[in-house]
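debug: dumping io for the single-chain case to check the tokenizer round-trip. Nothing else runs in this session.
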Amino acid sequence: MPWWFDAEVAELERRTRPLRGCRNAILFYGSSSFTLWHDIADHFPEHNVVNHGFGGSTLGDCVEYFDRLVLAYVPSVIIVYAGDNDLGDGGTPEQVFERLRAIIQRKRETLGAVPMAYVSIKISPARFALMHGIAYANRIIERELSNAADVRFVDITRRMVGRGLGPLLAYYSEDPLHMNREGYRLFGRSLAEYLSTVERESVDLRVRRSTVKPAWWRKDDDANEAGPDASPLSGSCGES
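debug: decoded output
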């Protein structure tokens, strides 16, 4: 058990305990790319968001804390980002996939067909040396998840690198490992598209109507308009 995260995990549990049982909770789970997404709720203003990113966690750590940080909250959707720390610690792309598969297996054992997204491992300036390993890990995971009914691969990496090195660097500022506001806009838009797909295929996950545009939105985006009012829907609760 990775005891060095125990204090941080206990604090997350304390802070988000009021969100247990929230209707239609969207639970974000993984490493510091989620931990540092401080305005995450502003990107999804019509949804109940629980942010359980913790430290420099690996997918292996996410396996260990799954029952405490995911299962206990009975989410309607799980969104996972982790894997670059596994590679940074010397893990192989195959090990990254095996650890992700353990999370998926535990989800299926305990939460059944609850939808889950795995966000592709991003390429950051601090980890250019791992670029080929990141690309291979993403390729393995995308291929293995292509026929999964309950788990989707959300590819933010192609969006980040598709226009070359210059645009990629624009997603980072002083910190060469963690994204800036522009990087989180890309995360937000990509995951909003994923949630829209889930809602089209199953059930509306929104718990409130909002006149406020999501934080990822730009005037030139082909985005849906916000709802007509700011009234809560039944069963809504606070945000993390």
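debug: round-trip ok. Residues 89 and 167 are 27 Å apart (CA to CA).
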